[in-house]
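fyi for ur records
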Amino acid sequence: MSPTQAFFMAASARDHWIMRICVSANFILIAFCAGYLVVQYDASGTEWSHVLGALIVGYFIADLASGIVHWAIDTWFSERALGRAVAIAREHHTHPQHILDYGFLEHSTLGSAPSAVFVGLASFVTSAFPVSVTTYSLMIIWFVTSLCLFLGTSFHNLGHRRPKSPLLRLAQKLRLIITPEHHWVHHRSDQIVRYCAINGWANYLCDTLRIWRGLEWVVQATTGAEPRRDDLEWQRRYRQTGTLHGPYFTILPTGVESSNTARLSVWRG
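which gave:
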C-alpha cells in the first residue's frame, strides 16, 4: 500500500446512497433553518445585536459539535459497526494526509449524519415554540451548527494543508478557522486532545477541563467498553505512518513537543 494513496477510495453503490441520504437530509435541515430565519425575523423582534451574539455562540457550538462527533468516532465506534466511515477515520490516524484524497461527499457525510439527527431534532422542537428572540436565536445556532457540520471535514482539512485563498489564510490568522499548528497537536498527542476542528475555540475549554477523559471514564464505568480499543487494533495493523512521506513541507509549531522526530507535515497541493 502506498503511503500517499488513501486506502478506501472505492465505495459501493450502497455506500454512495447512504452518503447522499445523509448529506441531503442535512442540507434540508440547513434550508429549513434558513427559511425559518427569513420568515420569522420580523415576528421575533430580534435585533442585530441578538443576531451577532447568536452567530458567535453558534460558531462555538458548531466547533464543540465537531469535537463530539470526532471524539465519538475515534473512541467508541468500530469499522464493524459503521463500516467505511470509521475505516476512513482510523486511516486518518496512521496516515493523516490521506484524508485529503477523499471527495466532498465523504467529507460532508461524517458531520451531516449526526447533524441531521440531533440538530434536526433540536430545530424541530425549537420551531414548535412561539416565535421569540430566544427561539430565533436558537434557530441561528442550529443553522450555524448544521452548516458547519455540513462543511466540517472541509474545515478540518485546512488543518492539513495551507489554503491558497488569501481570505482563508486571513481567517486562519484571525483564528476564525482551524490552523495546522493548532490541529497537529491532535496527531502528535496520540489523538486524545484537540478533537474540535472547525475553529478550535472549544478545544481550550474541553482540554483544560479534561471533558473527553471524564466522559470516557463515565462510559467505561457504566458499560465496560474500552476507549479507543479499535483504534489501537488499527495502529497495530498499520504501524507505518504517512506523515513523513509524500510531497510535504514541514513546520514545527511553536511550543509543541513531539513524541518522536516527526515534524508537522502539511500537504502542498
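The CA atoms of residues 165 and 171 lie 10 Å apart. thats all i got for now
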